[in-house]
Specification:
alpha/beta, Purple Acid Phosphatase, chain A, domain 2, 6-stranded mixed sheet, 8 helices, 12 strands, about 30% helix, binds zinc ion
């Protein structure tokens, strides 16, 4: 069984379409979305519609929560806030209903999925250090925990002797690792921030016991043009080409 894990689409229809095309070409069995379908980008309704037809499991992200007023935007920077205000005005009643029904966390046999952190998902904490990762390993018992939120792909593991290892490789073979547990960020589809502007997502193959982070080219300029047309903040437009 192969599962694609996508996150942080941020209303970037060009990036989402390119990633879904890649997923289809690989004959993936299931696509799971870790949230932040909207915010920042120009196509919130279109991305919601596409995601809802392709993903049986879609989780709530902080930007999705922000348009529903369940989260105050006081912790958002000025550009993110402006994009949220714009997105809120664009959303159709159907899109709002869809976002209102998204769960915070999903757990199956060997995987936990959550947008921010397994510890207190509703607080929207970020995992940006080894210490924060080490702390979060206490809050899931499955072999894998997949997160998004920082837009930076990374694989952090803890082995049987409690040794923590951090890897920024895009491939993992876990066929012979004993009782190692993993906290994995699959990166962002619609707004990568690891200085690689290509869309990022993960593929877990539970038979081959491998995990691959895939990077996909998409039409960045087309997305930027639409953002300019809608007068979204220039900082948000230019960062797509820089991947940061
Ligand atoms: Zn995000």
């Amino acid at each position: 069984m192969r599962t694609a894990i996508i996150s942080d689409i941020h209303a970037n229809l060009e990036a989402l379409s390119a990633v879904l095309y890649d997923i289809e070409s690989l004959n993936i069995d299931k696509v799971i979305c870790l949230g932040d379908v909207i915010g920042y980008g120009p196509n919130p309704n279109e991305c919601i519609q596409l995601i809802s037809t392709k993903c049986p499991i879609i989780l709530l992200g902080n930007h999705d929560a922000a348009v529903l007023d369940t989260l105050s935007t006081q912790n958002f920077n000025i550009n993110a806030k402006r994009a949220i205000e714009w997105s809120t005005k664009q959303l159709t009643p159907d899109s709002k209903t869809f976002l209102e029904n998204l769960p915070m966390i999903h757990v199956d046999e060997e995987k936990t999925y959550v947008h921010s952190t397994p510890y207190e998902p509703k607080m929207w904490y970020y995992i940006t250090s080894v210490e924060e990762a080490a702390f979060n390993f206490q809050f899931f018992s499955t072999k894998f925990c997949f997160v998004g939120h920082t837009h930076i792909p990374i694989m952090i593991s803890i082995d049987e002797s409690q040794q923590i290892n951090v890897s920024q490789e895009n491939f993992l073979d876990y066929s012979n690792d004993g009782d190692t547990h993993y906290l994995i960020n699959v990166g962002s589809v619609g707004q990568p921030r690891d200085r690689n502007p290509q869309a990022s997502y993960g593929v877990l193959d539970s038979e081959a016991k491998t995990l691959t982070i895939r990077r996909i080219d998409y039409d960045i300029e087309k997305c930027q043009e639409k953002m300019r047309k809608h007068r979204l903040p220039e900082f948000l437009i230019s960062r797509l080409a820089d991947g940061k």
